[in-house]
From TrEMBL, chain B:
Residues 92-114 are annotated as: Disordered. Signal peptide: none annotated. Residues 97-108 have a biased composition (Gly residues). Belongs to the UPF0229 family. NCBIfam families: PRK05325.1-2, PRK05325.1-3. PANTHER family: UPF0229 PROTEIN YEAH. This is UPF0229 protein VAPA_1c17970. It comes from the Bacteria. It holds the Pfam family DUF444.
Length: 501, 430
């Protein structure tokens, strides 16, 4: 194989050359990707991308301005290097190359983002189920225009407040347990007018019964429950049922909900996604080196960056802030390959189905069919636990001390694995809050119910969030926190916003 | 295999994409930003007004609430980097938090903890807020921000312009040069052919058919060449040259600004602050017009003295008030250092209107006889409501003296009308 030129400065031709070689190498491992679009950008544009939640564009909102200021400040003070990779889950898949990077770093980013993340977006079941890569960019363009139009028609303040309220509920705009309707975002914008009419009709039906003075409270309270079963998707429920929302407001709620849905898989696959991309940039570039295509200095350069990315500070270290998803993910995929190629006795006991199989096929299977929670539950190997020196701490509020409940030894592997798997379950990370009841006959108040897991209390932000819910709902809103015994241990209330118009 | 790839250079597009978001951010925190600007203004020197400023917002104000878990409850959390623990070990609960890093995975934004949110206003943003505070109309803002006087002068020649700027000599010179340049080759050939023709005609066997033929051919060639040369146009649009004029801003050379202020006990901090804004605005207005600006600070109670800016704003003295002392001193300084032929003199006086009653008439006389004749403009602001004798004396001048204006200022937004007068005086419609 021919040695590729390796000056430190990149040129467009060099990027093309490297990209072609990386693509060939990726193909030889059977990585299936969306076509790539590499975009060379400046540091300022990278900060823009950060501020707009990694999207090439998004509607205007003050919070993105805040984010940009914060990013810029940290960057200027040298608190953070700009991550060298942002990649958009779209078709074609957009990867950003920062102009300040050296050629070695550009090659790393191409391998990492344009082949690693890209193939993950295309293959992983959550992304296939939840996101529509072919039309996301068009949808974002539509959303931006629509919201700009609303600003012109209804004023900046009205739109800003509405978005603030929607953002507060963004994590509750997704059906976690139901399969989503697979509807292309492309159809979204075309059907808007029909939808608005139809939705208003439905809302009107729902509220058609005029509220009567409750003469027979006992009867009316128990006569009819609405919704008939708890709803987890708060934004959807509001979009469909809030009586006082204007059609344009419903559409804005919907837009935020759609975008939240698009990010939902990313929140559940961080370890896998970063691990997969890191594993592949490492594997692709090393393969090219073994074939004599890359120079030594070039390798040293990206390897030093790679080492930084997969560093896991131990607990108690100044830089420690939980488990580094790059480190854990990279270690797990690397381990899986080792288990396939050179299984030990231990591996055969732990992974009878995978030990000694074709590693490319096995990794592909793992990438496609899991999310962080199940991936850890299925593939976390004893060796990784030993390498990371994992241990679990039990912290019960009723006890004065913490207890070490498992460590990286034979008796602890299984427990550690289960515990870490639970840690990545979004259901345990975020409070379980659902729509519980709407008082149809009386004051139309909405009641939300928080079902406590392991007695975890709600954060004080709840009160603020509730005000946002009330703003969207238009009537009083209650929140009840229910413990394991089914008792309401705490409740909040937000009064309906006063009607100004 | 066809590799599907595309490399796009985006570096030149989409600069400043976040500007709309930043504007919205500033809009949202307008109140706090205004407050920060006010504080900054009162802490700055007159000359240092136009800079950016760091604004600090409490973290709580910029946070966006979401549902989340608080401390407490029963949890289990996996950490890396075990050094000494064995299963069953008990650890004292760390101070101030429940269970080693239970918060990971719910970390705040960017791990910045509870620090305040600090960001920098640019100079433009700062000035915008400052102007907002003074309720300056937009028209005036642009006038303040622009250099109002232009001088036009010649700057060589251009190849396009309006006919009245056509420079005939220059154009003809160009035409001649072009004709020479384009006619060079044919002229050489013509000379050569004519010489050849003369030579042929002088030939002894000129009558021979062969020679005759050659003569005829040569003559034809000559005629052809002459035709060609005639086709070189005498003048062509390309030759035209126009006088070029450019406009350059003219800051008139020099200005001096006298700030007069009463520092008797009745001038409290708030009143001084008001006066300071007035002086600042006047200074800014002057920087747009003049290249160099001197500032002279005169403060007075019963006597006047020239002081530094620092002392001017931050020293309080008590005692009575004799305003004329400052006017006398101003007059002396003008005579000594700022002859009005070379300097544009501006005077700005701030006072609470309190004056020793026999002195006010004298003040008016001083103004009329000595000061108004030599200043471009004199503005008096009274930072108190009550009209005392000084106000009444000065009021006699208003409308009679063209370069004098007076106003009561009880709020920062009252300062602008003084300026409106000022702009009127400068011949700019406001």
């Amino acid at each position: 194989m021919e040695r590729l030129p390796s000056p430190s400065d990149w040129t467009f031709d060099l990027i093309e050359t490297y990209h072609a070689e990386i693509a060939k190498t990726a193909k030889s491992f059977g990585l299936d990707v969306y076509p790539n679009q590499l975009e060379v950008i400046t540091a300022e544009q990278m900060m823009d991308a950060y501020a707009s939640v990694g999207m090439p564009m998004i509607y205007r909102h003050w919070s993105y301005g805040k984010q940009f200021i914060a990013t810029e400040k940290n960057y200027r003070r040298g608190h953070m290097g700009l991550a060298y990779e942002i990649v958009i889950n779209s078709d074609p898949c957009i990867a950003y190359l920062m102009e300040e990077n050296t050629m070695a770093m550009q090659a790393l980013v191409i391998a990492h983002a344009a082949y690693g993340h890209n193939s993950f977006f295309k293959g992983n079941y959550l992304f296939r189920m939840w996101t529509d890569a072919s039309s996301i960019i068009d949808y974002l363009v539509y959303a931006r225009h629509y919201i700009a139009e609303c600003e012109e028609r209804h004023g900046l303040d009205a739109v800003e407040q509405l978005l603030d309220s929607c953002h507060a509920l963004m994590n509750y705009g997704v059906d976690r347990y139901r399969r989503p309707q697979k509807r292309s975002l492309a159809q979204e914008s075309t059907q808007r007018a029909d939808r608005e009419r139809h939705m208003q009709q439905q809302v009107n039906d729902l509220w058609r019964t005029l509220p009567r003075k409750s003469e027979h409270t006992t009867e009316s309270d128990s006569s009819r429950r609405f919704p008939s079963e708890p709803q987890e998707n708060l934004l959807y429920f509001i979009e469909k049922n809030a009586a006082l929302l204007e059609p344009w407001q419903r559409e804005v709620v919907r837009i935020v909900r759609k975008i939240a849905q698009y990010f939902y898989p990313q929140r559940q696959t961080q370890v896998m996604n970063e691990g997969w991309a890191t594993f592949w940039h490492y594997t692709l570039l090393n393969t090219m080196y073994d074939r004599g295509q890359l120079a030594d200095g070039f390798m040293m350069e990206w390897l030093s960056s790679h080492t930084g990315v997969i560093f896991q500070p131990p607990v108690g270290h100044r830089a420690y802030s939980g488990i580094n998803p790059y480190a854990l993910g990279f270690s797990m995929f690397t381990e899986l390959r080792r288990i396939c190629e050179k299984p030990t006795e231990e591996d055969r006991r732990w992974f009878p189905d995978f030990a000694g199989t074709d590693w490319v096929k096995t990794l592909d299977y793992a990438m496609r069919n899991f999310k962080d929670e199940s991936f850890v539950g299925q593939f976390l190997s004893p060796k990784t636990m030993r390498d990371f020196r994992l241990f679990s701490i039990r912290d019960h509020q009723s006890e004065p001390e913490l207890e070490v409940s498992a460590i990286h030894d034979d008796s602890g592997y299984q427990a550690l694995r289960e515990s870490l798997s639970r840690q990545y379950d979004i259901g345990s990370r975020e409070p379980d809050i659902q729509v519980w009841n709407v008082n149809m006959r009386g004051d139309r108040a909405l009641t939300l119910r928080h079902t406590q897991r392991n007695n975890l209390p709600l954060h004080d932000d709840a009160e603020e969030v509730l005000k946002h819910v009330a703003r969207l709902w238009g009537f009083d809103v209650h929140l009840e926190s229910v413990d394991a015994q089914g008792h309401i241990s705490r409740s909040w209330k937000a009064a309906a916003p006063r009607q100004t118009d | 295999m066809a590799i599907l790839q595309q490399i796009i250079d985006r570096r030149l597009s989409g600069k400043n994409k976040s500007i709309g978001n930043r504007e919205r951010f500033l809009r949202r925190y307008r109140g706090q930003i205004q407050e920060a600007v006010r504080r900054a203004v009162s802490g700055r020197n007159i000359r240092e007004l136009e800079q950016g400023e760091d604004v600090t917002l409490p973290r709580h104000d910029v946070s966006e609430p979401v549902f989340g878990h608080a401390r407490g409850g029963d949890r289990e959390y996996v950490h890396p980097g075990n050094q000494e623990y064995l299963k069953g070990d008990r650890i004292a609960r760390p101070e101030g938090q429940a269970g080693g890093g239970s918060g990971s995975g719910e970390a705040g934004d960017g791990g910045e903890g509870e620090d305040d949110f600090v960001f920098r206003l640019t100079r433009e943003e700062f000035m915008r807020v400052f102007f907002d505070d003074l309720a300056l109309p937009h028209l005036i803002r642009t006038q303040i921000a622009e250099v109002p006087e232009w001088k036009s002068h010649r700057a060589g020649f251009t190849s396009d312009g309006s006919p009245n700027n056509l420079h005939v000599v220059r154009s003809m010179r160009g035409a001649l040069a072009r004709r020479i340049a384009l006619g060079g080759e044919p002229r050489k050939d013509l000379k050569r052919l004519e010489a050849h023709l003369r030579h042929l005609k002088a030939h002894p066997q000129a009558e021979q058919a062969l020679i005759k033929n050659e003569i005829r051919e040569t003559e034809e060639q000559i005629a052809e060449l002459r035709r060609t040369m005639r086709h070189v146009p005498y003048i062509d649009p390309i030759d035209l040259r126009y006088r070029n004029r450019v406009k350059t801003p003219v800051p008139s050379a020099k200005a001096v600004m006298f700030c007069l202020m009463d520092v008797s006990g009745s001038m409290d901090e708030a009143r001084k602050d008001m006066a300071k804004r007035f002086f600042m605005l006047l200074y800014m207005f002057l920087t747009r017009h003049y290249e160099t600006i001197d500032l002279v600070f005169l403060r007075h109670h019963t006597q006047a003295q020239e002081v530094t800016e620092e002392e001017f704003f931050h020293a309080t003295e008590t005692g009575g008030t004799v305003v004329s002392s400052a006017l006398v001193l101003m007059d002396e300084i003008i005579k000594a250092r700022y002859p009005s032929g070379e300097w544009n003199v501006y005077g700005a006086q701030a006072s609470d209107g309190d004056n020793w009653h026999q002195d006010s008439g004298r003040c008016r006389e001083l103004l009329v006889d000595h000061i108004l004749p030599v200043v471009r403009y004199y503005a008096y602001v009274q930072v108190a409501e009550t009209e005392q004798n000084l106000w009444q004396e000065y009021a006699q001048l208003e409308g009679i003296e063209p370069n004098f204006a007076m106003r009561k200022v009880s709020d920062a937004r009252d300062i602008y009308p003084v300026f409106r007068d000022l702009f009127k005086k400068e011949g700019v419609p406001a």
